[in-house]
Design a protein that fits this description.
Blueprint: H1 2-25, E1 34-44, E2 48-51, E3 57-60, E4 63-73, E5 78-84, E6 87-96, E7 99-109, E8 112-118, E9 124-141, E10 148-151, E11 154-166, E12 171-180, E13 183-190, H2 191-194, E14 196-203, E15 207-216
Antiparallel strand pairs: 1-4, 1-15, 2-14, 3-6, 4-5, 5-8, 6-7, 7-9, 8-9, 9-11, 10-13, 11-12, 12-15, 13-14
């Protein structure tokens, strides 16, 4: 987590070095301040867990879902992006003292806000971003073993890189990659099957890869 915090501040410091020059050199009337994108994304967890009592690890499935985001440009190069998507993931405790345990599935809603620097390169405009997310866990299906599974909502950092490619003055294509740091404390009530309630510290940390189309307005 310390490395993640340092990385956020390092990115923001690099961005700030060029901010004043950008603000002084641009004409505020030459760019559109809003963009909206529709992406199709793959959410690929890089999961790990520390599970009390029974040990083992966790396996979380990859999800493929649509995503919507809105971007506001403060200047021609500096912007903030709000990213909205929700995904359903199957969850399994693996290699535990009780074997592999099917823990059903859960929906994740991690609204993410990033601050971006867009490099001025004509029709091809790459960008870097860093920010935060708040992940909400909902719609839990406990599966065949647990009586109840509870996931704590959590804050985390997010890192982003991608590019837009202009098709014309209004429409553009987009490729985007994000690393979202998500951690939750999970409590599995498996009294009926295992005679115990088990806690786990779970890191999900998905890589999110997206392709889409956007519109400026």
């Amino acid at each position: 987590m310390k490395k993640a915090i340092f990385s956020v501040f390092l990115l923001l410091a690099v961005f700030q070095l060029t901010a004043q020059e950008d603000i002084q050199s641009q004409d505020q009337d030459t760019f559109k301040k809003w963009q909206v994108r529709a992406r199709f994304i793959s959410v690929i967890p890089s999961e790990s867990a520390t599970i009390e009592a029974i040990g083992g690890d966790v396996s979380i499935s990859t999800a493929y879902v649509p995503e919507l985001d809105f971007t506001y440009f403060f200047t021609e190069n500096w912007a903030a992006e709000l990213i909205l998507a929700t995904a359903n993931h199957d969850v399994e405790a693996v290699n535990t003292a009780a074997g592999n345990l099917d823990l059903g599935d859960v929906w994740l809603l991690p609204p993410t806000l990033t601050f971006q620097y867009h490099f001025p390169m004509g029709d091809f405009k790459p960008y870097l971003g860093a920010g935060i997310n708040y992940t909400i866990f909902y719609g839990v299906d406990e599966g065949p073993i647990a009586d109840d599974v509870d996931y704590d909502n959590s804050f985390g950092f997010a890192f982003q890189a991608g590019f837009d490619y202009a098709l014309n003055e209004k429409w553009f294509l987009n490729v985007d990659v994000k690393k979202i740091l998500i951690q939750t404390d999970a409590t599995v009530n498996a009294t009926s099957a295992l005679g115990a309630t088990v806690g786990a510290d779970v890191d999900i940390n998905p890589l999110v890869i997206g392709f889409g189309v956007g519109m400026k307005f």
